[in-house]
């Protein structure tokens, strides 16, 4: 029996009529599709207690009866369905707390219900069409098309739902991903991976949250008894969710928000760092095809981000300092054209088959991480060693800080960022750890190094603009160069003080006298390779 695995996709409602005609379904369906209507109501306390404890409680109409289900959410961005804690039939669609097996939760909810604080929060009405698929090699997959609406209990807010889900019933996980690839090719560009649960979207609707708000990475929580393979799978799935949530938010927005691009860039960097970190255990991961694909995406996002920073942050400062300089307007017009091209390139990339393949390959890697034998070791001792090595590397690169060249400071900045990401990956493995205090010490240093990097990028972009703008741009270029040099000098003078704070930060992980041997074995076969 295969572990339960599910891949979900959001579909443009105009493309829903094409789904029954997809060759994949016509060729692999074992019988005619079944269609039924589903009604589902979600309950919570007035202050969202179940939401805070990562649970959902719902009552759903099933045939002529009703089913009450209590679930605990799966890991963010994961491909496993939520864990069912209890599921019982109830009468007349009424919530029955006696059917909840967790006695402590049952008592809490009972108290809230008696006080009128437990009630309906949102509901879905869905028309579901289901296909049972079977491949020639015996893989069994269920394909579901859901169309309907999700609305709050008071009826004031609602959103349309149009989704396709693929659930693996038997067979290897890579077979499910192969079917997803075929489905995506048939429905591209109307299809995009969905990493949010329906309950998550319902809660956002109930709380009045904007669907277009940028999202930071979710905090990773890992039990201490998992293997390196399981840890990497969680990190990759979380990174994919971070990336895709911001793309979905950007795609829903009526106006461009630079923070979406910034967060997607952070997500791609965190994912690349994960391959670098675990590459210390399995050397083959450092050259995994996904690393190059993530670099492709990060480069496009970085180009757009650089023009955003120049136009939204740097030019306003220059105009404030030099309000009577006419050449600045000339540079702004040229920069605006280049930013428009960079944004268009990002938009085209995120709607491309290549990006869809990237997200599917990230999911596949998470499902097949256990196939890397070197990652079968316990993660906690190895995580401590990884943090120790990156910490030492950072301290080594910061020697003679005042004498570092711009290139060396850039390398130091990357080392600091990678140590921060690694600390965020593994922080939950060390109970009682002072993770937040450790990370706070990096704040000023990272901002300072980031400012120095932005100033260097500004000079490069301004030089490129001036070269195409002609003689009129030489004066504002000189003003910008002088301004950035002065700001750079002031920032450099503060680096030793900021570094002193970082240097004095005590590691939150245990220091081992004899590190675990994590020398890379022979490269393992690449799993989830990206199709080119």
Quickly count the helices.
14
- Classify the beta-strand content into a percent band: 15-25%
CATH fold label of the largest domain: CHAD domain
Reading off the top of the CATH hierarchy, the class of the largest domain is best stated as Mainly Alpha
**Helix/strand class:** alpha+beta
Please bin the fraction of helical residues. Answer: 40-55%
**Which residues sit in consecutive blocks of at least 5 with pLDDT less than 50?**
518-526
The number of domains: 2
Overall mean pLDDT stands at 90
Count of extended strands:
9
Q: How far apart lie the N and C ends?
A: 32 Å
What profile does the largest beta sheet have? 9 strands, antiparallel
The ordered H/E elements are: EHEHEEEHEEEHEHHHHHHHHHH
Oligomer: single chain
Q: What would the keywords be for this entry?
A:
single chain; 532 residues; alpha+beta; Hypothetical Protein Pfu-838710-001; CHAD domain; nine-stranded antiparallel sheet; 14 helices; 9 strands
Describe the structure.
The protein has helices at residues 23-28, 49-52, 103-114, 173-187, 198-206, 228-252, 258-278, 289-321, 327-350, 353-368, 379-397, 406-426, 435-469, 474-503; strands at residues 5-11, 34-45, 55-62, 65-72, 83-90, 118-134, 140-152, 158-170, 191-193. It is an alpha+beta fold and 532 residues long. It folds into 2 domains: 5-209, Hypothetical Protein Pfu-838710-001 (Beta Barrel), CATH 2.40.320.10; 242-503, Alpha solenoid (CHAD domain), CATH 1.40.20.10. Strands 5-4-3-2-6-7-8-1-9 form a 9-stranded antiparallel sheet.
């Amino acid at each position: 029996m295969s572990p339960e695995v599910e891949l979900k996709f959001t579909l443009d409602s105009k493309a829903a009529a094409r789904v029954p005609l997809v060759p994949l379904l016509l060729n692999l369906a074992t019988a005619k599709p079944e269609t039924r209507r589903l009604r589902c109501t979600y309950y919570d306390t007035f202050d969202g207690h179940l939401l805070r404890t990562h649970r959902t409680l719902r009552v759903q109409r099933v045939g002529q009866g009703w089913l009450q289900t209590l679930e605990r959410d799966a890991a963010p961005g994961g491909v496993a369905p939520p864990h069912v804690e209890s599921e019982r039939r109830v009468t007349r669609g009424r919530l029955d707390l006696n059917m909840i097996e967790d006695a402590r939760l049952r008592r809490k909810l009972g108290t809230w219900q008696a006080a009128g604080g437990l009630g309906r929060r949102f509901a879905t009405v869905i028309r579901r069409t289901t296909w049972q698929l079977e491949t020639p090699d015996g893989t069994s997959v269920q394909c579901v098309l859901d169309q309907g609406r999700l609305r709050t209990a008071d009826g004031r807010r609602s959103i349309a739902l149009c989704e396709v889900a693929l659930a693996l019933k038997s067979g290897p996980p890579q077979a499910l991903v192969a079917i997803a690839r075929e489905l995506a090719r048939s429905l591209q560009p109307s299809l995009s991976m969905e990493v949010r649960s329906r309950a998550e979207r319902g809660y956002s609707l109930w709380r009045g949250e904007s669907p277009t708000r940028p999202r930071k990475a979710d905090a990773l929580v890992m039990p201490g008894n998992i293997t390196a393979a399981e840890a990497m799978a969680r990190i990759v799935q979380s990174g994919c969710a971070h990336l895709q949530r911001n793309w979905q938010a950007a795609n829903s927005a009526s106006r461009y928000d630079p923070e979406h691009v910034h967060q997607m860039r952070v997500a791609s960097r965190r994912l690349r760092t994960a391959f670098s970190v675990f590459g210390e255990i399995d050397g083959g991961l450092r050259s995994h095809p996904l690393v190059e694909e993530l670099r492709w995406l990060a480069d496009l996002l970085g180009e757009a981000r650089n023009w955003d920073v120049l136009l939204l942050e740097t030019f306003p400062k220059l105009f404030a300092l030099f309000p009577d300089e006419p050449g600045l307007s000339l540079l702004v017009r040229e920069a605006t054209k280049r930013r428009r091209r960079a944004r268009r390139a990002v938009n085209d990339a995120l709607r491309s088959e290549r990006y869809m393949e990237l997200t599917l390959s990230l999911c596949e890697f998470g499902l097949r991480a256990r196939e890397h034998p070197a990652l079968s070791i316990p993660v906690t001792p190895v995580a401590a060693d990884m943090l120790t090595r990156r910490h030492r590397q950072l301290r080594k690169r910061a020697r003679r800080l005042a004498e570092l060249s711009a290139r060396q400071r850039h390398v130091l900045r990357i080392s600091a960022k990678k140590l921060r990401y690694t600390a965020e990956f593994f922080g939950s493995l060390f109970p009682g750890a002072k993770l937040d205090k450790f990370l706070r010490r990096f704040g000023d240093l990272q901002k300072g190094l980031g400012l120095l990097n932005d100033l260097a990028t500004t000079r490069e972009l301004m030089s490129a603009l001036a070269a195409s703008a002609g003689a009129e741009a030489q004066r504002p270029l000189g003003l910008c160069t002088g301004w950035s040099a002065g700001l750079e000098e002031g920032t450099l003078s503060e680096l030793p003080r900021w570094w002193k704070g970082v240097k004095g930060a005590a590691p939150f992980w245990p220091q081992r006298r004899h590190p675990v041997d994590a020398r890379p074995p022979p490269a393992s076969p690449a799993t989830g390779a990206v199709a080119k």
